[in-house]
Structures are given as structure tokens and as C-alpha cells.
Design a protein that fits this description.
Helix content: 40-55%
Radius of gyration: 22 Å
Largest sheet: 4 strands, mixed
Number of helices: 14
Number of strands: 4
Strand content: 5-15%
Structural class: mainly alpha
Distance between the termini: 17 Å
Shape: globular
Strand order of the largest sheet: 1-2-4-3
Order of helices and strands: HEHHHHHEEEHHHHHHHH
């Protein structure tokens, strides 16, 4: 028992030491960017300013949208109210800018080919499907999608979706967008492949936004996270015993992966579970794999198939 404790302490010590070296290196990476408040530029524009604004931000103005449509939008009382609420919530972006600077430095450390993007904030009429966008050259943030879960504009949203509307979800959402195209798509439709795909995405968040809590990275409350930690063994055992890991039934993604009020184990405890526990379990598998395969780089992990990751992860949650 004492020997095991010594090994665990040693692993933790060297892991922390390595993380410290990474953060020292990241802190030395120079990052220069300026957040462009397109939300203000557009919504304070006069009709005679529109042509200049369109030339500066052409990707926000498809050719089929007429100037008269834009002018009517600027006059719309509800949209003007939405703009006002964004300015109340975000008179400045000090904390967000500091977090973005750290994010971009971590991106350059782990993905040196990626340059710091042009950062633009906007209002997209609370289109949650397009709340953020992060490519090699551009990072867009729709501030009206992050006014806080209790904001009156979100009253008709399902309760389980409202936590996504908090400010602390901006960077996790940006990392999710950043991951598109960087993680190898699942080779099959098994539940395990989907779990590990999202486990990789969450592991990228471990690396790019390490200061964020696990709950914020996955978009859980602390209570939901604690449920997963306390019931990891039982949730995993349920999947194994019911032979769901290699099952290709598309309903499994709806039950365990997709956003939902709760996860559907078809047990009495379901109402106590958070949604997407399949993603959370996949995260633990990926973490276990990387802890036991320290020579594997982040790029190699993202390209690796789920079967190899799982079989070499030594993942085995302990019974409480």
C-alpha cells in the first residue's frame, strides 16, 4: 500500500512539474491581437455609413441582402434592445481578452502552424448554432449568445441549454470550433468511437484552456460533474454489461452523447444524471491513455483511431 502511494505521489509530482514547464514556455510566446467590436460598429451605423462597413466586413453581408433590409434591421426595436443588452453586459472585454491571449498562446505552443486569428465580436440574433467560429484566420464571437442563463431573452430555451449561455462558455465553445477538422472523424458508428471523439475534444480543452475547471470545459454545473465522478464506475459498468460500447445503433448517440436534459440509461436514476455522460466517460478514457503513453503527442492523439486508444488506455474506473 505504501509503495503504491509513493508511485502515485511520484506520478503527480512529475506531471505537475511537466505542466509547469509547458506553462513557462507558453507565457513566453508573444501574442498580438485586437478585438474588433463589429457589434458596435454595425449597430451604431447610419445608412450613409453602410457601404464603408460592408467593405470592411464583407463576409457579414451576402450579396442577396439589400441595403434596405439592413436599414430596416437597424430600426428594428427588438434588435435594438438586444444590442443594448449586449452593451450592458459587455461594456468592455477585459477578462475575455486576457483569456483569449492565453488561449492563442497555447494554440501556438501545441499547434505552431496556426497563427493568431482576427477576432471579431458580433450580434447574430441569438443563433446558438453559430455562436462562435474559429478558423486559422478568423475568430467570431456572438456576444448575444452569452448574456447569462437567466437572461429574459432566453426564457423560452430548454433549461438544459441555458448554462451554455454563460460568459464562461465562450472559450470552451471556441476550442470546440477550433477542433473541427483537427480530430480524425470516427471510423465507425459505434458508441465507443463517438465517446472517444468527444473525449479528444475535451482533452484539447485540457491543453488549450488549462485554467478552466472541468465543469466549465464540458458545460456542466459542479453538481453534475460531481455526479459523474461519484458514479463513474456504475455508468461504465452499465455500458459494458449491456454491450453498448461496440453497438452501432444510432439511438445510442442520442442517449449518451447528444445534448439532453439527462442521460438515458433507462434506470430510475436517469433524472439525476446530466446529459452527455458518454462524452465525459470518453474524456476519462483519453486522459488515461495519455497518462499511460507519455510519448504520444497531441497531434498523434487526434489522428489515432478509437480502438487503439481504448485498448492502450488501461482505463478501469474503481468501484467506490
Amino acid at each position: 500500500m505504501k509503495q503504491l502511494l509513493f508511485v502515485l505521489v511520484a506520478i503527480t509530482f512529475f506531471s505537475c512539474k511537466e505542466d509547469g514547464k509547458v506553462e513557462e514556455a507558453v507565457a513566453k510566446i508573444p501574442i498580438e491581437f485586437k478585438v474588433e467590436r463589429f457589434d458596435r460598429i454595425f449597430w451604431t451605423s447610419k445608412p450613409e455609413d453602410l457601404q464603408k462597413v460592408k467593405e470592411q466586413y464583407p463576409y457579414f453581408f451576402p450579396s442577396h441582402i439589400s441595403d434596405s433590409t439592413l436599414i430596416n434591421k437597424l430600426k428594428d426595436p427588438l434588435l435594438k434592445e438586444l444590442y443594448g443588452e449586449v452593451q450592458l453586459q459587455y461594456p468592455n472585454l477585459g477578462k475575455i481578452e486576457l483569456d483569449l491571449e492565453k488561449l492563442f498562446a497555447h494554440v501556438q505552443y501545441y499547434f505552431p502552424k496556426n497563427k493568431t486569428p482576427r477576432v471579431i465580436t458580433l450580434i447574430n440574433e441569438v443563433d446558438t448554432e453559430g455562436r462562435v467560429f474559429y478558423t486559422d484566420t478568423l475568430a467570431l464571437i456572438s456576444l448575444d449568445c452569452y448574456l447569462g442563463k437567466d437572461h429574459r431573452f432566453y426564457v423560452d430555451f430548454p433549461e438544459f441549454k441555458k448554462p451554455e449561455m454563460e460568459q464562461n462558455q465562450i472559450l470552451p465553445n471556441l476550442v470546440t470550433s477550433f477542433c473541427y477538422g483537427k480530430i480524425a472523424p470516427p471510423a465507425d458508428r459505434t458508441l465507443l468511437s463517438a465517446m472517444i471523439y468527444f473525449g479528444k475534444e475535451l482533452y484539447v480543452k485540457d491543453k488549450l484552456i488549462p485554467e478552466y475547471s472541468d465543469a466549465v470545459k464540458i458545460g456542466y454545473t459542479e453538481t453534475q460533474l460531481q455526479f459523474c465522478q461519484a458514479n463513474e464506475y456504475y455508468m461504465w459498468s452499465n455500458l459494458v454489461e449491456n454491450k453498448l460500447l461496440y453497438d452501432s445503433n444510432p439511438k445510442n448517440e442520442l442517449r449518451f452523447i447528444k445534448p439532453s436534459p439527462f442521460t438515458k440509461f433507462y434506470l430510475e436514476i436517469d433524472n439525476q444524471t446530466p446529459g452527455r455522460v458518454g462524452q465525459w466517460l470518453g474524456w476519462q478514457i483519453v486522459r488515461s491513455y495519455m497518462e499511460n503513453n507519455e510519448d504520444v503527442t497531441l497531434d498523434q492523439l487526434l489522428a489515432m483511431d478509437s480502438k487503439s486508444i481504448f485498448e492502450n488506455s488501461k482505463y478501469k474506473p474503481k468501484k467506490p
